[in-house]
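Memo subject: From amino acid sequence to discrete backbone structure tokens
Action wanted: Derive the backbone structure tokens from the amino acid sequence.
How to read it: Take the token row as a discrete description of the fold.
Attached in line: The record itself begins immediately under this heading.
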Amino acid sequence: MLNRKLSRRSVMAGLGGLVAAPMLGVSRARAAGSIVAAAFPGSWEDSYRTIVGPVVKSAGTELVLAPALAQDQLARLRASQSQSRPAYDAMMVSPGQTTDAIAHGLIEKIDPSKLKNWSKLLPAAQTEWGPNVTVEITGIAYNPKLVPKPKTYRELFDNPVYHGKVGWSGFGSNTATIAWVEIAKAFGGSEDNLSPAFKILAEHLNKGAVITSNNQQQMALYQQNEIAVFISTVGNVANLRGRGVECDFAHPTTGSPALPVALHLVKGSPNPDGVYQYMDAAISADVQRQLSMPPNEVLPTNTDVPLTDSLKSFISDADIKNLIYPNWAKINPNRAAWSAEFDRVVKK
């Protein structure tokens, strides 16, 4: 049974220190012959540590993963620009952060001739700033034993059956950001006008909305039956299923936002060869084949790796045709202001 008494403020306060903590261990772990690569926390960090790390090590480089959301990676790199070496040697981000990283001179164009698996990538995954290692499909995760399958983002606000059962987070992740854009559009807004989303959020807070700091906390609350619905990627749903948790994925009828995930070489890295070894491992057929299997179920970009039957169960040809590719040129300039407005609304 859901805990309706869960305090959104107590959840947020309890999570405040989680983002910064991982960098302490990383700083101590950095050593010659190693690279520090930022990775999304949770299943990404876990799978890259167990599957990608050993391959990079066999090539001669120790891979040290630093869990951080994409916006946090940007913030830390910008803060370290005046230092003798950057906070990371490699980034893992989506197009929204790539645009900002280029604009602020944080990453370098790569030399594809140093990646022996480069020619195996889908053409769309070959960018001059680094390889795309997957495309994340985002939508709505839900517990079919507790709530009916949602068809739209709007339904989560309009249908009382979902009230008090949905976990929401702010603009720290791309997944949440593009969901808020889609919610705004559902209520009359647009990619550069999120006022309708904040209005409906404010109204919804009195109906038991659970506000969390990030997606990982939403997954934890979901497993504790504190919430029954949250904005999610296919990968996170697959990860929960892999742990034996009841969880299904719903593609909104308005379309599921798609997020390519890229690896970038950070400007000023003292070990660029190590970063190339890392990139080459991440796009290799063997690694991507393992990552495409349960519990990770990451969509491959290496053309030698076919979709598994399980992945096909998440994504149909019709779903692929209905994918939405956000306009980050419109989203990025507003993101900081939206984040501040989100905080203002939920702290009222």
The longest strand covers residues 130-142. The radius of gyration is 20 Å. The first helix runs from residue 8 to 15.
